[in-house]
Amino acid sequence: MPGTLDEADQRLLNELIVTKRRVRRGDYLVRAGDKLEMFFLVKAGVFKSFVVGDAGDTQVTAFPMQGDLIGFDALDTGTHHTSIVALEDGDACAISYSDFERVARSSAAVQRRFMHLMSHELVNEQRMMLLLGTMRGEQRLSRFLIEQSARYLRLGYSPTEFVLRMTREDIGSFLGLKLETVSRLFSRFQQAGLIKIDQRSLKLLDIEALRQLSTQ
Amino acid sequence: MPGTLDEADQRLLNELIVTKRRVRRGDYLVRAGDKLEMFFLVKAGVFKSFVVGDAGDTQVTAFPMQGDLIGFDALDTGTHHTSIVALEDGDACAISYSDFERVARSSAAVQRRFMHLMSHELVNEQRMMLLLGTMRGEQRLSRFLIEQSARYLRLGYSPTEFVLRMTREDIGSFLGLKLETVSRLFSRFQQAGLIKIDQRSLKLLDIEALRQLSTQ
DNA sequence: CGCCAACTTGATGGCTGTCAAGTCAGGTGG
DNA sequence: CCACCTGACTTGACAGCCATCAAGTTGGCG
Lengths: 216, 216
Known about the structure:
- Two copies of one chain form a homodimer.
- Chain A is an alpha+beta fold and 216 residues long.
- Chain A has two domains: 2-115, Jelly Rolls; 135-215, Winged helix-like DNA-binding domain superfamily/Winged helix DNA-binding domain (Arc Repressor Mutant, subunit A), CATH 1.10.10.
- Chain A has helices at 7-12, 97-106, 108-134, 137-154, 168-175, 179-191, 207-214, and strands at residues 3-4, 17-23, 28-30, 38-44, 47-52, 58-62, 68-70, 83-86, 90-96, 161-163, 195-198, 201-204.
- In chain A, a hairpin with a 5-residue loop joins β5 and β6.
- The first copy, chain A, is globular.
- The model of chain A has no long low-confidence stretch (mean pLDDT 92).
- Chains A and B meet through β6, α3 and α5 of A and β6, α3 and α5 of B.
- Chain A binds a DNA duplex (30 and 30 nucleotides) through α6.
């Protein structure tokens, strides 16, 4: 969902990369309120980014994974608005913000690429707003599954069989549902023969049906 | 909500402005699917930008008004993903995309400013996701009113008395509610003495109470 | 082996959507 | 200038989806 880089982009950014950071499950890459010092490019593992409202309620905004570049929201004020935590052990490359600024000044390609990535994220968030504002639970969850499938496919993994790295509560927060609703929907999908789910191991049995559900 | 420019920014962009365009209520600045040729800077009037899903349902994503720069979502693919329509007569400055690219290449200030504006929009959309994902009708509408108030204040208008330019349905779509729910909430707010509303003429009688409602 | 977080499933209630009817305001045409 | 018409709005009745509360199960980790 966040800006995703292809290989050419990653080469482009090679000179920006300062440190590779190994993270363990539960480690925070960024906490809301932190000063912008680094962007991060996810190399391995699945993360969760979320915002916290005045009332203390949280909304998961994305599940960044391999190839995703994160931290754009901090460009605005120089302060991060989202927190980013690792859902499993992984790696992330830190890109120094000041390095980025310096390189962007001289490289039109870098600035262009960053703007495109940000624009892409804008579009994604608009799609999320559509989901949250107009769809019902069934559609939301089926869209989520299809999207996860597409992401794993793009990374060269099986699009029909993968392990969810987030809890039901995380999924619920992402989709604007409660964890019980997510659990019930999974059960219903399984009963309908659309998926096979055991804890977090997931098989998509009928993607076409899921796709239809998601666009109804 | 979209990237908002202060006066210094606007001077910065002066050389980019190609044409000033007068629009009438109902005119489209942009239709989803259009090629990116122009950004628009709103000079007068209130607009509505929205996305349309596969199922045909629409989600209002913003109500751009004076000082707002719109069209960022098109940088990604070169194609607009949102449609933008005027809710009342107004003016918008068109900024040619190719001009922008040329100027951005030479002016670090311009590119920086654009990135900041996009980042700001990202943060706004994340806040919207929080609203749509976690809040109930009462909170959503009170937040909407407070935000409208703040925007009019920033433009030098009364923050407590203004005219809504959008229909109940538009508000509902923006907030993920149905128009009847919006109407009922307005009535309830009025009965509680928080607002005075007659058609689209609105007075905020107790902003503090509204603020509390929105953060509960 | 035991504990705890994660998950599932059931019962119940409430918020909001849906359907419906009626009012109101503004614009158009006669 | 007025009547009409249409879109916007309000309000009511009802239903359904999802949240909430609760209890029990499972699996992983120390």
